[in-house]
## 1
Amino acid sequence: MKIVVILISMYINVVYAENIVTSDALIDEFSIQFKLKNWVKAERLAMKLNNSNPKKYFLLAMLYGTKENPKHDKTKTVQYYEMAMKAKDLVAQEILVWVYLIQQEPEYSNYERGVKLAKDLLPKYKQLIAKGEDTDGGLHRALGRFYLFGVGVKKDLNVAVAYYEGAAKLGDKKSIKLVPYIYKLIDKIKKIKEKE
């Protein structure tokens, strides 16, 4: 009996490992086809991913959200980001925050939902940062944006700039470019307040 359990366990581990390798290979090939704008091949590759893999839905959202793609479809894009978010993809949740906040079309504009998603996301990002899991500065930049615009939190330019500076220190190129502009914005606001 022990031998059967061990063999089953080994088989499960091998199948699981093969699925991971297959998923990584599919995602890598998707990235290549996406960059080459080979939309049909990219779509086929994403569809081959297991339905339990949240990256499947994120990749499909990217694919349908790309305006150059002849199959560009905002509704599918939002639906796939929602599916990825439900599968615990935090980047998909962050994207949905901004989709719901800035879209002009009534079917996508949902300020309350965007703020709710932001409030849910903020502590998760802060926890990941506290664990040292923000290696490229993306999480710092995201939090900086939330504080800069007051989304899900009270607007605070000083906290925003601190997060952007943290992102810049981690090498985030967008933040490196934004920090000087944020300082200029803060100076302009101070000057306006002094005149009042």
Note: The two ends are 83 Å apart (CA to CA).
## 2
Amino acid sequence: MSIKGYGKQLRINLGERTSKEEQLDEVTMRKYLGGVGYGSMVLYSELDEKTDPLGPDNKLLFATGLLTGNHMPGGGSIEICFKSPLTGGWGESRSGGNFGPDLRKTGYDYVIFEGKSQDPVYIVLTDEGLEFKSAQSLLGKTVEEKTNEIREEMKDREISIMCIGPGGENLVTYSTIMCDGRAAGRCGAGAVMGSKNLLAFVVKGKQEVKVADKEKFLTAIRKAMREVRKNPDSAEFKKHGTTGDIPGCDSMGDWPTKNWQSNSWGKGEVLYGHFFEKNLVRPNDCYTGCPVGCGRVIKVEDGRFKTPEHEGGEYESISAFTAFLLNEDMDCAVHCTYLCNQLGIDTISAGGTIAFAIECFENGLLDKKNTDGIELRWGEPDILPELVKKIARREGIGDLLAKGVRRAAEIIGGNAIDYAIHGKGLEAPAHDPRSGKALAVTYGTASRGMCHIHPLEGMLYDSGKVDFGLIPFGLQDPETIDRWDEKGKGKAVKILQDACTLPDVLGNCKFMMYCGMTLDHFAEIISGATGWDMTVQELLKAGERILNLQKLFNLREGFGLDDDQLPARMRQVPAFGTYSFEERCGINDYEMMLREYYEARGWDEEGNITKDKLKELDLEKEKYPPQD
């Protein structure tokens, strides 16, 4: 029996070329809601301990949520869940675009890919059914070439496509799954897809999800949409996108520079000025119906980095190819991020890994014999496009760098590990916890490792003084704290994580919460869709349950206390820049903040989940026995 507000699930075995339609269970869905919540349950229950991330037994789950849809503020989301080949732990990656809403229109909320196809294939899912199509002719082609060829073959420009580039085919551990110009970028989902010989997934449908109370549902959506549209941050997102944050982050000490040797550079305003005047073509909605439109269409008009118009230019990507590398050539940064998207590799990990390699070269751990004759230097734009291509193709030095900084450091040896800036194996993104200490705890404890999605709650809380409407639920008023305070930050992060993981659970863009959408809006929409009497308290408990289940996943894979630590460099006062004389910005007692966080979570001092906490969250029947 179908559940109001939900579609169905499709399980596809690529090796056997079979599929199975499955109904969802209402008890399970209310417990985990959807998106990465439901994905956590599926992967925890169906994957064995130590499953090879690139073997046929790993699963690739495409997940939507109750708030996925073109009519929904922030509804253009697709969540992809898997065991990460980069970290060996919990993997999730989100992409904006029309793919998520279009998947729901086929009647399916979740599609699970299992096994491995003998030959390269792409999958087409429409109202007419499922097709396995040969992808032999797509091998080696860029993302744009693949999507154009598929659309021409199907004679349909309106289909939604997610595909991998050469990076995914070559199993780069941080390769992406692309949705036109949008990326499911982190943790290596592209490599998992490539390991299954699945090159693309195509969807198109016209079905409508049946809801319990249509009038209540639409009224709640309109209420949330009005709130987002009138919020002043929405207009700023439209005008400047995320890249517009560069000058402010630089001045606030929130812009990791020269492989995290500093948290500021002093070049942000000039670089963004060039981007806004020379590279920006127009704002862009990532999906049809977005009330914010933070996307950018950009280009490089001419010169040696000439680049066609394309969607891209987000804050993280541009930062990874400017501040991370001391590269002052914005045209080069735009070109390199374009190459990453076309070749299907994560911009953040690529920039971070190149920064790591430059520092290894500078300190004699690599030389020209290791780097194909390339002299790796800071602030040298001409070497960057070639390094991106080498990584995607796994050629020469690119093969080493395609493994990510943690594994590359282990291979290089010596003190290379000191230059490998990561959390749980995931390369660090472009926000710095020396700008606000809550970010340190979110970086250390995030389920998938240091990422640019889950830590933002800490940054906006500390530095932006955003409370997300959570003060009534125990969050200390950010106006009463200093961004460099450490006491109380562990407790705050627990509440922030429980609440702000919910957009990824509900299939919604997190930026809506930055533009006025609250958990009250979520609860009202869910109640209209499902007929449940959903409350904010139940949503927060679901968020807590899901994060604990992801923690169980990582504990089962051997993660422990050491994996919740931060790199030493990230904790130190910056070596240069505006904040190099500001002792308060150094992270002085991370261990205290971590203990405070564990206590707030109800975990033991080693970060293990207690039996009492599992019982409280209705997780006591899970097959991993926690330590007391």
Note: The mean pLDDT is 96.
## 3
Amino acid sequence: MKKKVIIESPYAGKIGRNITYARRAMHHSFSLNELPFASHLLYTQPHILNDKVPRDRALGIDAGLEWGKHADATVVYLDYGISQGMQYGIDQARKDNRPIEYRHIGKNPNYLVPIIFTVAAIMWLGMLVFLFSNHYYLIAALLWIVSFWTISIFTNNIK
């Protein structure tokens, strides 16, 4: 029988980075032939609960802890430290006499390098088009705007 585990990893703060990390933690748990559950990945999806609203955050944490009562273990992924929500889950696992395992899978790989190089190439291409042809200045300007916007999104959310 496969072991049912509650995944504890950070969510608040650098949300994009933490979602990527939690997904990697889930994948790691599956690779160990476990059945993982990460309430912070499920309940924080759009139109479910809003982690920035204290009542919603508390409701999500409480729901996750309730599911934890049916788990065989709590697995804590430590590469980004222990958040307040994670500590709450660890404390509840102790109260419930549920085994706690601590794991490392390494910080998220830097997916940004190829993306930044691609976006930079698009920016320079747009600039060349702008410099050598007045007919395409709007396209060049749009490429620049999209490029900077893309870089800002990825740098704020992934790593």
Note: The mean pLDDT is 84.
